[in-house]
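Form 12-C: Joint structure prediction
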Amino acid sequence: MGIVVEKRLTPSTSWQVASIILALLASGLVSALLLKSAGADLGTAFGALWDGAFGGWRASWKTLVKATPLILTGVAVAVAFRARIWNIGAEGQLFMGAIMSYWVYTLVGTLPPIILIPILFIAGFVGGGLYGGLAGWLKARFQVSEILTTVMLNYVATYFLSFLLIGPWRNPDSFFQQSPPIDRAARLPNLIGGTKLHLGFLVAILAVAVIYVLISRTSLGYEIRAMGMNAKAARFKGINVERTAVIVMLISGGVAGLAGVTEVFGVQGKLKPDISVGFGFTGIIIAVLALLNPIAIIFVAILFGGFVNGGIKLQVATGVPSTLTDAIQAIILLFFLTAAVLARYKFRLGTKDE
Amino acid sequence: MQPLLKVENVTKRFHQVVANDSVSFEVMPGEIHCLLGENGAGKSTIAECIYGFYKPDKGSISVNGEVLDLDSPAEAIRHGIGMVHQHFVLVTSMTVLENIVIGTDAATAILNLQSATDRIKAICARYEVEIDLNSKVWQLTVGQQQWVEILKALFLGARLLIMDEPTAVLTPQESRRLFKIFREMTGDGMSIILISHKLDEVMQSDRVTVLRKGKRVGTVVTRDSSKSELTNLMVGRDVNLNLVRERSDVGLPMLVVSGLHAANDFGTDKLNGVDLTLNRGEIVGIAGVAGNGQKELFETLMGVRRATSGRVMLADQDITNKTPREVQQAGIGHVPDDRFAEGLIPDFDIQSNLVLGVHRDQPFARRGFLKFGQIRSFAKQAMDEFAIQAPSAQTICRTLSGGNAQKVIVAREFAQASRVILANQPSRGLDVGVIEYMHKRLFEKRKEGFAILIASEELDELLALSDRILVLFKGQIVGEFSHGAVDLERVGLLMAGHFDDAPNPNADRSL
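Section 2 - Result
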């Protein structure tokens, strides 16, 4: 007799729900221990976390603002992962989207906003898309692992942005490495008066809708799913997996590039080296936690957005180091990933193969 | 005489599925006892219970009157039970000797290889097996590798040897030789449990225990039985695998392959100038031991693998090295040998798998969007037509049985192909009933004027289906026989690479 682990033929829904609750409880517990060990009062800590995230109107729209780039990078990663292409480069693609859209802004920034803003988003999509497409092409043409290329291209993008902000695009009047401020007229308009919830949030939701339809309703989406589940059979039945890989990376990079636009033109109002604080990487976590489901990504991203803001409040209220909130995020991820695996297995007492 | 092995009322459940339901049989010393049954009848499960890999839920297994309570194969081996699995468990980068002694007393702490070598050599001499103990296993033929497995069991002192589908990978000559040696072993008092579904070799056993759906339906003395009685016991009804061949008017050449060369994924040449012609309304069978280029031939024809030279003509259209999509659009359908890895997207549902390949085309898609209504109604129709048993068209293919999975592939390919059907091992691992059904459908296609190419390791199947049989050896067609003029003996020799008209006297010895 012992504990027997067996794979389930079909995932059980009740277990999936139970495992999520279990993961929440477990991560809450371990996070509490961590906070306690840092000397924080738990009531204050969790209270501050909630207040910062969803405690009231102001906190809530701020959370949506934070969630905007995460929705975009999350869905960008999900498209690629659906095809089993491991795009770890949403961060770099975001930067390239930001760079491209800022460059276009410097050329045609005086156009009326109604024309200019769509052009900026298109530019961001093209910038990120071409950058992702480069990794896709290297994979299709030379069988270079996209994991390596996308990770390394992240560095190239980061340093390219640095170069631009030290050199040609630097604001001569500023002490910091950043561009001159962007005209008010060129910034993304706010959706609701009295808030800073900008147009980018709507664009992110729209991107999710488009990707959802693309994946589940179109022939291309069918090919992306087929390739992700069994590339060999897909190839045998005439799907050009190389070409599809390039297309997937164009789309994935493009969507990540949109996040660059929302941050530069919706939040910062200028191009800075820190327009993204790891949004591209957090996007991976979000996509995986949402089981690559575009709709679920919206909710997970909002949860993570709340976590970022709540984390700031938590630090202020309790004085724990900021790295602690990163640790708590990682703990949540680990428990959720474990739970996702658990839901696919069955445990019981007994002997093997009974 | 006391039975060597006694299996009494063994029941084994996996979840809700009863794999063995109160199965009993006895194996006498010196007996070849065959376990016969369709896929999923419980043959392998009962064998694995005897070998200690599974523990029965109920019932007992005794050897020489002593009831065994085995927890592992290691204990079974200690009681003189050995097993050779269908898929060998060998370390291919190690030598024959190392593979035999690995995990035995001879391999503990200080290697005592000399006495082990002597003992193995004595066993080889006894059964007149020639095998170089110092060659690496990957250098051996499949038949020789099987011998390494058998030697290992004998070296460990097996008195009862369980052979799981031993001849699936052998030429007819090799299997005959194997059975001759089985007889010598039983002459020495050993017993053999033979798991098989090939009636020809089942007929060489002493007794047959037939299993159906986990239950024993009977044990018969082979001498007093017949193939048709055994089939009837196994399937539960009369089966006719030799369907009446209607005359078919063989037409003009449809697919002409000339001088085709191709390499496998590791760059080794696997096709060395294949020439063959498929005519309209004709089934051509390819005989050959696995690994002689069958897979590469089909893949190259389908455009999945590059032809390094040679030409493939479909009617008057050159389709050499066209993309898979172009080849399929030209009217060629393909049933690959590995259903779940190459034929299906296992995590897709049935309806999605049924439109794989035409998912961009009318009527299943328009302007890039899938037409789910059309896909669903096509799937329903295909499931009816091919008797695919599943709860609905939205059933995930991973959960289907091999037979139903194969039907999904065949339904798809028959719907998409318009001129040629290529099928590699179409009935491997399928139940007799499904095989019979597949043969019927293939004959229908032949009548419609399709040119059909089939590779199979079952010569009986090729005999039943083919208008012509070609023998493939080391990537070349080395023989051709028309239906009714097939010399099985010659086919077997050609499969093993003996091309002289006079049978090679050493053929039997070189395993």
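Section 3 - Comments
The first strand of chain B starts at residue 5 and ends at 14. Chain B has three domains: 5-235, 240-331+418-511, 343-416.
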